[in-house]
Write a structure and sequence with these properties.
three-stranded antiparallel beta sheet, 8 strands, alpha+beta, about 15% strand
Length: about 280
Amino acid sequence: MNLAEKLLALELEGFYVEEGVLSPAEAARICQSTEDTLDQGPVYGSNFLNHDQSLAPHLADERIVEVVRAIHGEGARIIANSGNLRDPNPGAAPRAPGGLHVDWPWGQSGASHIGGPLPDVVINITTFWMLTDFTRANGATVVAPGTHKSRHNPNGDPALKRARPTEFTVEAPAGSVLVFDGRLWHDGGVNRSSSRRVFWGVNYGPWWLNCHARRPHSVEHRLQAAAGHTPAGHWPYLRGAIFDSLPAQVKPLLRHWVDREWIMTKSEAEASVGDTSYFM
């Protein structure tokens, strides 16, 4: 698919699949690294890069980023990333239809979400980097094509949670990337196979999207907690040493997230208040 075809697919159906982004050898290597990392214990928070950098060289792949920048502009950036595995459960019951959700900032589980009818704007582009084959048997992602345009948000709405729009199981080989509008209704399936399903979730957003409410110890995060709200999510800062090790083409996508960029001493803060050099 060329860029125009990808953008049209996102506009009409809300998703598409880019196959062959990773070679079989690359997918196998990253899959093993991801499994090894997750097998050491749970990784909390949506910044898996702090624990595993195996996918990092591919995060600025032009086949993916050209779409992100066409929608979000040159200031587009990565706003979350996670490593995921779904263990096999051959005896499990099949996934029941319905129960779909949309992604943050539309989620309603915390204070920092956009409420009301979903606006006609793409804010979150979600990508699932498939490190194993995605099949119906191993619980491949289920999407409801076109629901991103409905303006309805099933999160927190029992009636919409029971709704059963037409569903499509996204089956594709390892090395593929599922790209979708965060407003698209979707869900994970049940892994009824005999092997794991492994993938990374990487979210891209515009430069203007305020992610600080999801960052621990930020002012917004503290204000939400003090007001009795559940701060939405937990997106730890990216360690400076990890950022320094990343490929040059990936750094612009993560520059906003580095821990040292958000650490300011009291004296530095006080000095910045009277700093007028910006206007000179």
